[in-house]
Amino acid sequence: MGSNMAEAHPVGFQWIIEAKLRGAKVIHIDPRFTRTSAHADQHVPIRAGTDIAFLGGVVNHILSNDLDFREYVAAYTNAPYLVSESFQDTEDLDGLFSGYDPHTASYDATSWSYANVNSEPHPGHDAKERSDPYQHGARGPFVETADGGIESDPTLQHPRCVFQVLKRHFSRYTPEMVARICGVPEETFLQVCDAWTANSGRERTTSLVYSVGWTQHSVGAQYIRAGSIVQLLTGNIGRPGSGIFALRGHASIQGSTDIPTLFNLLPGYLPMPDTRHETLSDYLDGVRGPEQKGFWGNSDAYMVSLLKEYWGDAATAENDFCFDYMPRINGDHNTYRTAMDMLAGKVHGFFLLGQNPAVGSAHGRLQRLGMANLDWLVVRDLSMIESATVWKDSPEIETGEIVPEKCRTEVFFFPASSHVEKAGTFTQTQRMLQWRDQAVEPIGDRRSELWFFHQLAVRIKERLAGSTDERDRPVLDLAWDYEVEGDEPSPADVLRHINGIDLTTGRTVNGYPELKADGSTACGCWIYSGVYANETNQARRRVSRFDSGPYDAEWGWTWPLNRRILYNRASADPEGRPWSERKKLVWWDEESGQWTGNDTPDFELKKPPHYRAPEGSSGPTALSGSDAFIMMADGKAWLYAPAGLADGPMPTHYEPHESPMRNLLYGQQGSPVRKVYGRPDNPSNPAPPEANSDVFPFVFTAARLTEHHTAGAMSRQLPYLAELQPALFVEVSPELARERGLTHLGWAHVITSRTAVDARVMVTDRMAPLRIDGRVVHQVWMPYHWGSAGLTTGDVVNDLIGVVGDGNVFIQESKVLTCDVQPGQRPRGPALLAYVEEYRQRAGITVETGTRIATAGGHLERAHIEPDEPDDDPPEEAS
Amino acid sequence: MGVKTWLDAWPVYRQLTGEDPLGRGRAAQSKRSRTLESKTETADRMVHSVCPYCAVGCAQRVFVKDEQVIQIEGNPDSPISRGRLCPKGSASKQLVTGPQRETHVLYRRPYGTDWEPLDLDTAVDMVVDRMLDARRKGWQDTDDEGRKLRRTLGMASLGGAALDNEENYLIKKLFTALGAIQIENQARI
Fold first, then answer.
1. Contact A4/A40 with Cβ under 8 angstroms?
2. What is the dihedral sign for C-alpha A174, A176, A179, A181?
3. What percent of chain A has pLDDT over 70?
4. B179 and A706: CB-CB below 8 Å?
5. How far is CA A402 from CA A370, A371, A397, A399, A754, in A?
6. Which 3 state secondary structure label does DSSP give B166?
7. Could you tell me where the beta strands, DSSP code E, fall in chain B?
8. What is the pLDDT of residue B160?
9. How is chain B split into domains, by residue range?
10. Which positions in chain A touch B178 (Cβ < 8 Å)?
11. Confidence (pLDDT) at A109
12. Burial class (CB in 10 A: 0-12, 13-18, 19+), B44
């Protein structure tokens, strides 16, 4: 679901074909019939943006018919735990959970907690009304579990136990409702349910695959929660052939999340410090609760080791390991917010490191106008990209919105080294680090990022040397003594420091269990600890598949600790025996007194299944021998999230921000906490209950082609690829082509309240119209790889998309919006602006459209629009 | 020419008598094809790499001759890709050797209408000047309630997701020490 794997991950798709040849049934649930559907046993067309309704239907089907894997659910999930009496469900509140504040469009999650335990904000913690998931890292929220544990009902019958709460929550997600919302016939829906449940249990497992078709939604995090709930109810986590595969889109996008260049994270999913954290101990109190279970209990060792890697000898126990040097966040600093801040003149300089937001980010026009308002822009890429030339040839030059002679942005273009001109690791989609050797030296001015940032660091340190300004201490004390090869750091030595070093011996540590909180270890990313175990680059291992076992454990290195399947303790029953011979993976070996099997056990090796934690314990010690989910605060997988999410403890179907439909389940139309940016330059198409949604009557979705890569900088320039996919096109059904007078291979343009975009028409049955609640809904699809540079050029599809985001993670909703389609090409130059303005007027669009996000109970609550004058201008430096 | 040699030169004979009954391999090979040598055979070295496009992580073999990349192929040893590459991975020699690659620093001055050349060393120094200036202009010591911020909103960064882990690590480390927090990545998108 939400993935066109054959198209976007073609070589990975060979394993789906392999499984199919061995008898697996492949079902593809997707708005469009794609290359993936062509290889599937069954393609299920669905209206874009309704996957939670579909999955909620599957949950309801499982629970109504007792089709869950009961022993697994009872042992490894939080199904038995009782939820607080003050919790109210969407069934009670017309689509909202208890704790909603329409004024701030956010929840106070206190009432979602378990019945007898503290969850956030916990005592001693600087109380904050809102749950701010961006501040969690990935540790999950607190749940205090000590002393007698959480009140529970092992029979799963208590009306307030998670199992029953879940059952009630999804009780109206019936096959009939799925058909009305998703456009999937009841019979087809039930076929999917039957296939899923019949292929799960002790003897069989089912895998679920998703990609950005799930994440790029205003409810993206809850899409994944919904998939997780189905996979937990069916016992499909931690076992061979089970799991949820997040197919990521770029060579090391997993790596750039693990070792993040993200505003709210530090390496290893430690949260970025915020204004509540005066001291290291405040910070650590925010990462781990004093009485919670699991391996986040050792986060003091992870964080202190990171601080030691950052600030070396300067970081001591006496000075809180330089925790004070850390900058603090206090809100939303994501890349879209930053683009808006560029427009407001608050951001002076911007680095683009192999990224092309003029084409690749939602609302390209906003991105380009933002960049044209900077003091300076640094672009590092292999070839010239649209983002480096906004002052020269952007669409806004044609409309007159940018005039080169009036654009003040100073631009530096640095040519980058390619993947064969430098050595280093990528982390692929299954968390595997693979090392690349360097093949050739880069020529001319081509350099790696490693070179560039090393040069910046060395020169900035020189420039600030002798400074007595307190704010320069973090730079002057920064440990930057990597082994140098020529004029850049050795990537292997950087990886050693990421792995972690025992400062008493100078040798690499063998894994995160060896990290210490006393300052005797330094480690750049605790989850990568072990990648340089025994002073050996484990990511460089290449034992051929012809010479290894079924898990190919010596090809590359997978975090954590080379575990190939996460939470694999759940592949055995609570007593430590495989659920079945056919599906065995790791098990308890009584004789040797340890866990063993085909994969690295994701459990303390010597902790027996019958182990029960001593009273008052916390952290890893508090995990019992059957607490398979060792990172969770209660050791259990969460069917219900008692805290930690911005938009509710359980997934709920909300319509997309832009939708042709009213929500059929609740008065609450869209996500009540979605991140809207109500500004004149970021208009929304109206959606019910607002009027005039028929001006943009069609559902729009976009995705990739095999032959191009994201914003096109690595593909539109290549002759082979440009020839294989030579032009931008829009896929429409024959019915829609008739309705709008579109001719196959002729021109059409697609319009939203942001802009209009030209494309060639592809009339195809692949985009079948759907019958939704008694009416026909057309969907259109476009690939999004084009821009003005390269051998094949075209309009920027992302210009159609506005900025609205998931309330948890701020990812933009770019997989579903509404649009109109008209034959012929769009107007050009200033006439384009007038044309789109005419559409906005016809639809009655104002800055408030789409921003009255609380609609439950028949009310349209206040609009969430941005003030004209930003109120948090950074103070101008006096010195 | 003996009869045997004469017969052997006839593809149908080879097809009927040899190990290639379908005539799709050696039986159909001309004398010229038989004597051709793969350029990978004469490469100076083969270097292990990984495809830079999607996140599957297909292993690549990069063949180098005279310090030039002459061929990039899949690596059959890989348990992930089993030697296969998709159209993008197969085109990656064009990605690294094609004329679209820029080789020199380019500079566009404020209000300029075209690129100008600039020396690499000078360019890095100019960026350092501007970073320190932007850092100063956007500096915030505390928020309205006097809580520590110790940061700058003067500069931001957006990174691609084909950067190495080692590179991302140093990027985050340096920016954090400088107090810059709007450091983002394709992973947000």
1. no
2. negative
3. 95
4. no
5. 11, 11, 5, 8, 17
6. helix
7. 45-50, 59-65, 68-74, 106-108, 116-117, 139-142, 148-159, 180-185
8. 78
9. 3-35, 45-97, 119-188
10. 460, 474-475
11. 93
12. exposed
d(CA A94, CA A662): 13
Our separate counts of H helices and E strands in chain A read: 24, 31
For residue A182, the surrounding DSSP H or E stretch is helix A175-182
Q: Where are the beta strands (DSSP E) in A541-597?
A: 557-558, 586-589, 594-597
Closest chain A residue to the Cα of B119, Cα to Cα: A445
SS3 sequence of A291-327: CCECHHHHHHHHHHHHHHHHHHHHCCHHHHHHHHHCC
Q: Are A677 and A261 in contact (CB under 8 A)?
A: no
Candidates A78, A63, A71, A79; CA nearest to A197 is A63
Give the SS3 label for residue A352: strand
Element (H, E) at A832: helix A830-842
In sequence order, the β-bridge partners of residue A781 are A701, A731
Answer whether residue A833 is part of any domain: yes
- Which member of B56, B124, B165 has the closest CB to residue A255? B165
Q: Is residue A203 part of a domain?
A: no
pLDDT digits (tens, 9 = 90+) for A483-511: 999 899 999 999 999 999 999 999 999 99
Listed in sequence order, the residues at least 6 apart from A870 whose beta carbon sits closer than 8 Å to its beta carbon are A344, A346
Chain B, 149-168: which have a CB under 8 Å from a chain A CB?
149-168
CB-based contact, B146 to chain A, within 8 Å = no
A361 in any annotated domain: yes
Q: What residue in A sits closest to B172 (Cα-Cα)?
A: A261
What are the CA-CA distances from residue A382 to residues A379, A388, A712, A787, B105 (Å)? 10, 12, 12, 16, 11
**Cα nearest neighbour of A409 on chain B:** B110
At residue A715, the pLDDT reads: 97
pLDDT-derived band at B1, boundaries 50, 70, 90: low
Question: What token pair was written down for B160?
Answer: 């691609």
Q: What is the CATH number of the domain that holds A363?
A: 3.40.50.740
Q: Does a structural domain hold residue A41?
A: no
Query: pLDDT tens digits for A33-82?
Result: 999 999 999 999 999 999 999 999 999 999 999 999 999 999 999 999 99
pLDDT, residue B17, reads 87
CA–CA separation, A120 and A129 (whole Å): 10
Domain final position from A464, A497, A524: A464
A123 close to B (CB below 8 A): no
Q: Domain range for residue A381?
A: 335-422+444-464
Measured at the alpha carbon of residue A217, what is the angle toward residues A215 and A218, in degrees to the nearest 5? Answer: 125
Taking an 8 Å cut-off on Cβ atoms, the answer to whether B150 and A325 are in contact is yes
User: pLDDT confidence of A876, banded at 50, 70, 90?
Assistant: very low
Q: Residues 461 to 500 of A: which have CB under 8 A from any B CB?
A: 463-464, 471, 474-475, 478, 489, 491, 494-495, 498
Residues of chain B in contact with residue A809, where contact means CB-CB under 8 angstroms, are 188
Does residue A412 sit at the B interface (CB-CB below 8 Å)?
yes
pLDDT of A859 above 90: no
CA distances from A834 to A252, A390, A395, A399 (A): 42, 22, 15, 10
CA distance A609 to chain B (A): 33
Angle at CA of residue A779, ends A806 and A219, nearest 5°: 15
Indicate which of A252, A413, A441 best probes the interface with B, i.e. most B CBs within 10 Å of its own CB: A252
A266, containing H or E segment: strand A265-266
| CATH class, B45-97 region | mainly beta
- Domains: count for chain A: 2
A810 in reach of chain B (CB within 8 A): yes
Bridge partners (DSSP) listed for residue A160: none
ipTM of predicted assembly, 2 dp? 0.95
Q: Give me the CATH number covering residue A822.
A: 2.40.40.20
**Average pLDDT of A428-451?**
98
Cβ distance of A721 and B88 shorter than 8 Å: yes
